């Protein structure tokens, strides 16, 4: 694909102005833009024939496309990328949008997950698009661990964190486990975990098992390792992907093929197991990033755009991401400051709650 920034530099003022007007009109209406429409918008007085020639040149460069003969032009993916990178004017965050987003955080909520659910719904409502929120992994210090036998083949490990958060995880206990071996395993773990996060405790516990295996009853040792296996398979990524506003995208589809692409996108999201890959979209650092169409494989089939930003904890570590997904004709100038502010707000909220 040609370099969009180089193409922009090679264009003269008239071509750049025609291109900007085509994209802005398309983003506002979703309709192809004709030369006669542009004659009324250009600062200089030029004929429709002259504008058609300019548009033909832009089409040759791969920046515009003609969906139908004599039906005007629409920007291509390359054209949208060039517009976003070089010509997009980011507006200020509207006070009404700010208040709607802030209200979801200021309203009392029992935990971070509830706040993030509300933020996702609010973001979808404000932008009239679908919203995505990747929730952070739970990194509070552990306070207590308990094993509960459910039946001979299933057990529960209960993790109690210092901030009051509780997680229950199912696993398969070793054959022949007894109540006493489960208590012994829990006592061994509780003596080690106090004040440590799950990731910190995991490595320490494995080292202690190797060093003190003779002190542990063999069945209790297997119980500990079985519990660790539950953490390894589920604990490395306890984050969730919150998706809100599916109806916004479906209602915006004008054609059957567009609706089918959108359904494919949501099916992919709902089936997606490695949701941490969503966070990789922001791996190049903080700030808002825009992905258009096939620039990201997750959204390539739906022809959608994603505006996404990471949010960070007090240590400036990326712990989650928030984004808006919609058609490629998103109002980027309005959406970018909304996503940026929401990410900043979430980062402050998570940092504040972790200090309590």
UniProtKB/TrEMBL annotation:
Q: Which domain of life is it from?
A: Bacteria
Has the keyword Transport been applied to this entry? no
Q: Which Gene3D superfamilies match?
A: 3.30.450.40, Heat-inducible transcription repressor hrca homolog, domain 3, Winged helix-like DNA-binding domain superfamily/Winged helix DNA-binding domain
GO terms for biological process? negative regulation of DNA-templated transcription
Pfam families assigned to the protein according to its UniProt record, in alphabetical order: HrcA
Gene Ontology molecular function terms on file = DNA binding
- Provide the Heat-inducible transcription repressor HrcA C-terminal domain boundaries: 114-336
Presence of the UniProt keyword Transcription regulation in the record: yes
* UniProt KW keywords: Repressor, Stress response, Transcription, Transcription regulation
- Provide the function of this protein: Negative regulator of class I heat shock genes (grpE-dnaK-dnaJ and groELS operons). Prevents heat-shock induction of these operons.
Q: Which NCBIfam families match?
A: hrcA (TIGR00331)
The family assignment reads:
Belongs to the HrcA family.
Q: What is this protein called?
A: Heat-inducible transcription repressor HrcA
Its gene is hrcA
């Amino acid at each position: 694909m040609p370099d969009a920034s180089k193409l922009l530099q090679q264009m003269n003022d008239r071509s750049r102005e025609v291109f900007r007007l085509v994209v802005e009109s398309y983003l506002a209406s979703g309709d192809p833009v004709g030369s006669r429409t542009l004659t009324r918008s250009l600062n200089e007085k030029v004929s429709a024939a002259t504008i058609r020639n300019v548009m033909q040149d832009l089409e040759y460069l791969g920046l515009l496309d003609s969906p139908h003969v004599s039906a005007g032009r629409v920007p291509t993916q390359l054209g949208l990328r060039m517009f976003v990178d070089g010509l997009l004017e980011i507006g200020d965050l509207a006070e009404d949008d700010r208040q709607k987003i802030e209200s979801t955080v200021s309203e009392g909520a029992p935990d971070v997950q509830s706040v993030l659910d509300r933020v996702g719904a609010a973001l979808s409502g404000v932008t009239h698009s679908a919203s995505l929120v990747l929730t952070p992994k739970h990194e509070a210090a552990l306070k207590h661990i308990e094993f509960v036998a459910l039946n001979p083949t299933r057990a529960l490990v209960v993790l109690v964190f210092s901030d009051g958060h509780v997680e229950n995880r199912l696993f398969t206990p070793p054959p022949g486990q007894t109540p006493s071996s489960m208590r012994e395993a829990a006592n061994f773990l509780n003596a080690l975990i106090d004040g440590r996060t799950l990731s910190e405790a995991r490595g320490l516990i494995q080292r202690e098992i190797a060093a003190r295996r003779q002190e542990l009853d063999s069945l209790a040792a297997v119980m500990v390792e079985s519990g660790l296996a539950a953490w390894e398979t589920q604990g490395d990524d306890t984050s969730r992907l919150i998706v809100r506003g599916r109806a916004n995208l479906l209602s915006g589809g004008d054609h059957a093929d567009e609706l089918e692409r959108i359904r494919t996108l949501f099916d992919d999201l709902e089936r997606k197991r490695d949701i941490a890959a969503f966070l990789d979209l922001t791996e190049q650092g903080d700030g808002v990033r825009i992905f258009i169409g096939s620039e990201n494989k997750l959204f390539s089939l739906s022809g959608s755009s994603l505006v996404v930003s990471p949010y960070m904890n007090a240590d400036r570590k990326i712990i989650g991401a928030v984004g808006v997904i919609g058609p490629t004709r998103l109002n980027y100038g309005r959406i970018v400051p909304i996503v940026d502010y929401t990410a900043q707000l979430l980062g402050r909220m998570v940092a504040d709650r972790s200090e309590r």
